[in-house]
């Protein structure tokens, strides 16, 4: 551990370009209310700058927000793969695909030099996940340093990082439009509801992010070090179903419910059947459940995801001077 | 004073408490056995109660008996039942799930019981589990056209039927035909309507009429059975705030609202709580049908008072959230001056009512569109007279 820390502190600082264009997006899922109200509040306050950076605020899926549903035709936050963004538009094209392409023009184009420097997408979950930052890489030093600041400064909720290990072309969520991007996921909150405590956590996370951006842009040097509580997605666990009726036959066991990021050992209970029997975890590796009992995942029959926990060494970081 | 042998011979020949008595060699052993068996006073058949009371009066003071059995007045059990309301046997009972298609505990329980009704079977009762809004359940949404649980108005039920009517109004008419007609002698005796809420209401029973002694006695029974866990009773009897529910088709409508649970989500603990409450409710009905007389009782209830909306701007947009101090505090006192809402930029708005109220349905997802952040209630104690089954009615198995 000490060797790694020493190595991190001795590393040459990485120099990256300033983040001059930042986007904050809410309502990507129309019933995840913290982001909707936070973006509206930023718009009400006419917040257009964060130091030298320009700030763009977007309600990503206005039609879904209008009816307070996750989406109208399909999940907007799965529409940002290269394939879908470049697909031709016909009369049959779902609303969310068209909207994704619009957002790609506004915030992207994805992978292009003209894209937003930083895209921050706001989400809620019914799972007890506290505050989680989600992104596609643990080697994007801008994102990792933002994570470290958020984790250090926020005490009102546990703060964790979730890695979705996918190449950029397959990255499906809105944050992948920016040169740097991540999602802020706060829970637990029922969909369609705005809880003051959850809203305030999300607001703090956005404030800390914009604060970091300003410090970075004005030349602050951020020292290297280690960040922990980084979780890599491994696999999904599905609800048990009756083979004949296809109905779900169990609820998530009380020992897993609300225990996101706790340890799941082989032999631990996972599901409690309506008949009273217990279904146990039969994997070989000790893993960490997350997105436990997320409402939106029922349609995919996903009860929760499992992750491996790790620590990441990050180099010192500073803005690149021209 | 009777000694134990005499006690035994006096009470022998009656049901199980007698068996306890006969095994005891001392008076103290007898008392401790009864306490250990936790034989609730109200479950003892009427004439055995009277006999045992007479016998025990000699062995213990009234005070001692009260402490043992927690009965409000020893002498009440002694007097012959003069003011007893007689009700018909509750022969037809329905259990509704999916009145709101995204309230998962009821949907899951009813589907389970449609497949296998063993758990809800009770001697002498026809218990019918029923999904009231199947289209909403399929889409996992609260409703398709309009809220089914507001659709059972006289106007809707008497409207000429037709495909042009909103889906839920058509459904209300169908349900009224199967389980009603509402207000007629043919209507179902009891309907339990299963709901979930995003509010922290625990297991709440919803009572529509303060004069429904049958329901009051049932709720009293459930509250005692579930203790020390609590089971608040919400009384929705109010000239303006009362709404026409699916359960209102029955003679004795009972709402069961369990939370907190997000819409579209099934939580194991919430599911099991609802299951247990229903078990006790059906036990009550079975005991009633067996002829048990339930002595007079009182039930603490929360009577709805006022609907409180979110603060809004001139465009109707919400400008504040339920305050963190009020969030999750259903059934707790809200005093004038207490924090009530918090604006998005952090300002506190306070409750400015005249006196203490007890809020509930705090931050229910479905009520944003109904302009309701929470509803205030006031505490009240309702009295229920003794009830028993109408004698002379044929006992159908």
From TrEMBL, chain A:
Keywords: Cell membrane, Cytoplasm, Hydrolase, Membrane, Metal-binding, Zinc. It comes from the Eukaryota. InterPro entries: AspA/AstE_fam, Aspartoacylase, AstE_AspA_cat, Aste_AspA_hybrid_dom. Zn(2+) binds at residues 29, 32, 123. Its EC number is 3.5.1.114. It catalyses: an N-acyl-aromatic L-alpha-amino acid + H2O = an aromatic L-alpha-amino acid + a carboxylate; an N-acetyl-L-cysteine-S-conjugate + H2O = an S-substituted L-cysteine + acetate. This is N-acyl-aromatic-L-amino acid amidohydrolase. It comes from Oncorhynchus tshawytscha (Chinook salmon). The lineage of its organism: Eukaryota, Metazoa, Chordata, Craniata, Vertebrata.
TrEMBL record, chain B:
It is found in: Cytoplasm; Nucleus. Its EC number is 3.5.1.15. Residues 90-285 form the Succinylglutamate desuccinylase/Aspartoacylase catalytic domain. Transmembrane segments: none annotated. Residues 298-378 form the AstE/AspA barrel-sandwich hybrid domain. Its main location: cytoplasm. It comes from the Eukaryota. GO terms for cellular component: cytosol; nucleus. It is an enzyme of class 3 (hydrolase). Keywords: Cytoplasm, Hydrolase, Metal-binding, Nucleus, Zinc. The keyword Nucleus applies. Its cofactor is Zn(2+). Belongs to the AspA/AstE family. Aspartoacylase subfamily. PANTHER family: ASPARTOACYLASE (PTHR15162). This is Aspartoacylase.
């Amino acid at each position: 551990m000490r060797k790694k820390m020493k190595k991190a502190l001795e590393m040459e600082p990485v120099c990256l370009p300033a983040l001059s264009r930042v986007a904050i997006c809410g309502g990507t899922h129309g019933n995840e209310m913290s982001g909707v109200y936070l973006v509206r509040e930023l718009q009400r306050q006419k917040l257009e700058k964060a130091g030298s950076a320009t700030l763009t605020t977007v309600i990503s899926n206005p039609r879904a927000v209008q009816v307070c549903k996750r989406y109208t035709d399909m999940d907007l936050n799965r529409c940002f793969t290269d394939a879908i963004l470049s697909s031709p538009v016909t009369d049959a094209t779902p609303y969310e695909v068209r909207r994704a392409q619009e957002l790609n023009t506004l915030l992207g184009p994805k992978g292009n030099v003209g894209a937003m420097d930083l895209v921050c997408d706001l989400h809620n979950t019914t799972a007890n996940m506290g505050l989680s930052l989600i992104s596609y890489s643990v080697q994007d030093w801008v994102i990792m340093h933002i994570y470290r600041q958020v984790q250090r400064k926020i005490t009102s909720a546990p703060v964790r990082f979730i890695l979705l290990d996918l190449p950029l072309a397959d990255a499906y969520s809105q944050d992948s439009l920016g040169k740097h991007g991540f999602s802020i996921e706060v829970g637990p909150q029922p969909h369609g509801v705005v809880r003051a405590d959850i809203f305030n956590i999300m607001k703090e996370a956005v404030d800390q992010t914009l604060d970091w951006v300003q410090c970075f842009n004005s030349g602050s040097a951020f020292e290297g070090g280690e960040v922990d509580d980084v979780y890599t997605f491994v696999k999904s666990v599905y609800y048990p179903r009756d083979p004949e009726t296809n109905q779900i036959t169990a609820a998530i066991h009380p020992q897993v419910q609300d225990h996101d990021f706790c340890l799941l050992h082989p032999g631990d209970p996972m599901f409690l059947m309506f008949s009273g029997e217990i279904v146990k975890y039969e994997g070989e590796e000790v893993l960490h459940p997350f997105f436990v009992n997320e409402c939106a995942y029922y349609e995919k029959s996903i009860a929760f995801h499992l992750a491996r926990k790790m620590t990441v060494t990050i180099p010192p970081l500073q803005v690149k001077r021209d | 004073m009777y000694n134990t042998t005499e006690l035994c011979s006096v009470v022998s020949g009656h049901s199980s408490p007698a068996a306890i008595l006969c095994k005891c060699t001392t008076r103290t052993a007898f008392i401790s056995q009864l306490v250990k068996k936790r034989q609730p006073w109200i479950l003892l058949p009427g004439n055995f109660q009277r006999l045992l009371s007479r016998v025990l009066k000699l062995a213990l003071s009234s005070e001692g008996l009260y402490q043992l059995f927690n009965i409000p007045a020893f002498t009440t059990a002694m007097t012959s039942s003069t003011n007893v309301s007689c009700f018909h046997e509750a022969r037809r009972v329905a259990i509704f799930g999916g009145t709101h298609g995204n309230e998962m505990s009821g949907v899951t329980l009813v589907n389970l019981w449609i497949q296998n009704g063993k758990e809800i079977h009770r001697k002498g009762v026809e218990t019918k589990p029923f999904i009231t809004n199947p289209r909403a359940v399929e889409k996992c949404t609260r409703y398709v056209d309009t809220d089914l649980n507001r659709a059972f108005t006289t106007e809707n039920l008497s409207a000429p039927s037709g495909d042009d009517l909103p889906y839920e109004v058509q459904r209300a008419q169908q349900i009224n035909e199967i389980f009603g007609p509402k207000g007629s002698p043919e209507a179902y005796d009891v309907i339990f309507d299963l709901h979930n809420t995003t509010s922290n209401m625990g297991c709440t029973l919803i009572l529509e009429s303060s004069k429904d002694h049958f329901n009051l006695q049932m709720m009293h029974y459930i509250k005692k059975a579930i203790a020390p866990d609590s089971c608040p009773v919400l009384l929705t009897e109010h000239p303006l705030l009362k709404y026409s529910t699916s359960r209102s088709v029955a003679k004795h409508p009972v709402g069961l609202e369990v939370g907190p649970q997000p819409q579209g989500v099934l939580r194991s603990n919430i599911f099991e709580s609802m299951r247990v409450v229903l078990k006790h409710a059906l036990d009550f009905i079975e005991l009633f049908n067996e002829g048990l007389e339930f002595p007079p009782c009182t039930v603490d209830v929360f009577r709805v008072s006022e609907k409180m909306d979110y603060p809004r701007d001139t465009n109707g947009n919400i400008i504040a959230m339920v305050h963190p101090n009020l969030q999750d505090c259903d059934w707790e006192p809200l005093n004038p001056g207490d924090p009530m809402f918090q604006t998005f930029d952090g300002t506190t708005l306070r409750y400015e009512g005249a006196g203490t109220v007890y809020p509930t349905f705090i931050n229910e997802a479905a009520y944003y569109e109904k302009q309701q952040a929470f509803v205030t209630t006031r505490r009240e104690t309702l009295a229920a007279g003794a009830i028993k089954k109408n004698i002379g009615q044929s006992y159908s198995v």
